[in-house]
Amino acid sequence: MDPGNPLPGAPALETAAVDPTVTPSPNPPPTSTVIFETTGDITPTASLSQTVDPITGTLATGETEIEETTAPDTQVGSTSNGSSDSSLSSTITSTIVSEEVEPPAVNGIPVDSIVVFPEGVAENVRQIFARGQDMGRDPHAFSKLGDSLIATPSFLTKFDVGPYNLGPYDYLKPTIDYFAGSFQRYGVALRPGLHAWGVFDPLWANKEWCQPNENLLACEFRLNNPSVVLILLGTNDTGYPPGFDKNMRQVVEYSIENGVIPIIVTKADRFEGPDNTNNNILRQIAADYQVPLWDFDLVAETIPGRGLGEDQVHLTVFVENDYTMPEAFQTGTGVHNLTGLMALDAVRWAISE
Amino acid sequence: MRIAPMTLLLALFLVACADAGDPAETVEKYIQAKVEGDAIQIRALLCSEMESVLERESRTFESVSGVSIEGMDCQQEGESSVVRCQGKIIALYGTEETEFPLVSYRVVEEDGEWRWCGEAP
Questions:
Q1: CB A258 within 8 A of CB A132
Q2: Do A239 and B91 touch (CB under 8 A)?
């Protein structure tokens, strides 16, 4: 059996058409970079106001000239004696030469707050990816490492098997194409009850697929040869935060050493206690190692009941996968899958640069 | 009092030939200790080359709501250092059961005792 396919025991899913030759879209990344070319004097009083449609978030297009004369009696930029500086009267000719639009937020939370991906992380991601390519990693494959929260067909699979409707998030479609096949893949690194301690314990490895003394993460990397791994752990790591911290760091280091970009995912539950200890550990680890953080916990605040079902651990399910429906943003898996796709999208852009 | 050199040699000989126990029994005890999170017993049965994973081995089933061993039966393979086990560990996480099949394990003799030393190739 092809180990790239879902394993026996995994939910039966259709096989999606996979084109491994698909390359990233040449479209610009959905960031909010606006570059101005300026002529004339620019002083601290010169404010460049942009007209943005409050509904669509789009800027006026084309070449725009802005002529602005600063009033001589303005307090902003006044000299220390209170007199105004005549040089403050300036003419600014600005030409918008590049225009990119902020991607739509999720329940009012900006994407760059949910997917924490500053330039330092992007640079590190590129380095890990380059190392992985030298090792022969598949640039189009990602793996999943985690517990029952993601050991379910509700997690990402519909982006492979459909149907789905991204609605206003259609800009993410090239990322679905890029990682085609990985969304529905179950793999050997998903186990209900898995905790960070268990990742390197061969006991947890699938005995049908993994070699003696091989842990499940090494086994998954060997079978799937990914460039990216989504890591969702912490719910079952209760009672001993230093152990969780230590083992998660080991997971991240192992991934980096093996040329696999780790995406650390925070969780919606408070299973370990009300102080959110494990999520804070995860955020610190992401910052320390300069790896992507998919901060689902942050956006879970905007979902009724934090997107959790009756057991206060597993996510409420959104079946339709249609992001034109309000329900998509009111259920755990609806927001989870969308923001997970955003995390993968950020990685795709970083490694495509 | 003079202890005859022959007596001393005999004592050393007896220590060297002392029965190190049953390797299969060692493995069964180890698996039981792991399920119970008995760090003291795990330490006593773990081989020296795996001492660095003592904490991991002790905490494997720390967060479970229930764990049991079903049908454990371990046998040494001939005179080899391999013990083959049948059966499984069943752990309950909330309402979800996860099964861990028992496999073949390696044992080594250290200080006159058999020690569990990971899975056998």
A1: yes
A2: no
User: DSSP letters of A113-162?
Assistant: HHEE--HHHHHHHHHHHHHHHHTT--TT-EEEEESTTTSSTTSSTHHHH-
Closest CA to A263 of A296, A306, A292: A292
- CATH number corresponding to B20-111: 3.10.450.100
Q: Which two tokens stand for residue A142?
A: 């990602």
pLDDT in tens, A101-153: 788 999 999 999 999 999 999 999 999 999 999 999 999 999 999 998 999 99
Give the one of A193, A197, A213 whose C-beta lies nearest to B56's C-beta.
Answer: A197
* Torsion angle defined by CA atoms of residues B50, B52, B55 and B56, in that order, rounded to the nearest 10 degrees: -70
- B-chain residues near A192 (CB < 8 A): 93, 96-98
Residue type, A12: A
The answer to whether ipTM exceeds 0.85 is no
Helix (H, G, I), strand (E, B) or coil at B98: strand
What's the CA gap between A231 and A260, in Å, rounded?
Answer: 11
The whole-angstrom separation of Cα A235 and Cα A149 is 9
- Neighbour count for residue A275 (Cβ, 10 Å): 10
Nearest chain A Cα distance for residue B109, angstroms:
19
> How many C-alpha atoms does A103 have within 13 Å on its Cβ side?
25
